[in-house]
Design brief:
The structure is a single chain. By secondary structure, the protein is of the alpha/beta class. It contains seven helices and nine strands; from the N terminus they run αβαββαβαβαββαβαβ. The strands form two sheets. Strands 3-2-1-4-5-6-9 form a seven-stranded parallel sheet, with helices on both faces. The longest helix is centred in the middle third of the chain and has 22 residues. The radius of gyration is 19 Å and the shape is globular.
């Protein structure tokens, strides 16, 4: 895994840079992926698709060019009537890479919400990508699909999602793997942190500083043996791009005995706990 996502891969496509479509392009990972592509001038064309307008997405100043309105399309990719419009380009050409960074990330939602906004969305855009011959379709998934265990989980370990959110992402993975002609890579992420992070890690760090200021002990329901695996959002962006390049350039080093679809855990070596 580390060898695959930890190295840069040459980018030329017969002298041209790849074109890129990012579904969920204004979400936390999507915007940093767009910034990574922009800063390194990696793509010939980029389109960001999201339900939320850039003006309402709380974008920091450094995203102004990477997520500019001329690159943006407002659409709900979970709706079948929107999918073709999302993929259509004025030139009539097809996108080279499609990154699906969209899903329901809120906790404690009903199954129907996760099915619609995670599974159905992934299936809809995956089916369209397969139909159009996209060179690589990168699906952002979750490390929470594995059965909990004290030892770190490998890609081949037993699957047993422990949250509804993860259950429906696993269903999405399984449906995508069944699609003929879909050039699929699945990246399973832990808790993603970094600048402007507002989810699990960011909230925990903010609470910790409050308790530090108060001089009080911050108590948890769990002890120090519980690990909270993490990865920085910059590493996620780089891993997503490198995975697409690796796949499109022949999947060097991949052994088909590992499975039809390349699946990678993207995680740091911090072995993080809450203490």
């Amino acid at each position: 895994m580390t060898d695959v996502v930890g190295q840069d891969v040459p980018t030329p496509f017969d002298g041209e840079k790849p074109s890129v479509l990012i579904i969920g392009g204004l979400g936390y990972v999507g915007r940093f992926l767009a910034l990574h592509i922009h800063k390194n001038n990696l793509a010939s064309e980029v389109r960001l698709v999201d339900k939320v307008l850039p003006q309402l997405a709380w974008l920091a100043p450094e995203f102004e060019e990477a997520c500019s309105p001329d690159k943006f399309m407002q659409a709900d990719a979970s709706r079948k009537e929107a999918v073709e419009r999302v993929f259509d380009r004025p030139s009539g050409k097809q996108w080279d890479y499609v990154f699906n960074c969209a899903s329901e990330t809120r906790y404690s939602q009903d199954d129907e919400v996760y099915r619609l906004r995670s599974t159905d969305l992934s299936v809809a855009v995956g089916r369209e990508a397969a139909k159009r011959g996209v060179k690589c379709f990168v699906e952002q998934s979750l490390g929470m699909v594995y059965k909990p265990d004290p030892t770190p989980r490998k890609e081949t370990d037993k699957i047993k999602p422990w949250l509804k959110m993860a259950k429906w992402k696993l269903v999405a993975e399984e449906e995508l793997e069944k699609m003929e002609g879909l050039n699929l890579v699945v990246l399973r992420l832990p808790h993603v942190y970094g600048d402007y992070a507002s989810k699990h890690v960011g909230t925990a760090l903010s609470l910790a500083r409050v308790y530090q200021h108060l001089g009080e002990e911050m108590k948890w329901l769990w002890d120090k043996d519980l690990r909270t695996n993490t990865v920085h959002v910059h590493d996620v962006a780089r891993a997503m791009w490198t995975a697409a390049e690796w796949y499109a350039h022949g999947k060097k080093g991949w052994d088909t005995s590992w499975g039809k679809t390349p699946i990678f855990n993207i995680v740091d070596h911090g072995n993080t706990c809450k203490f």
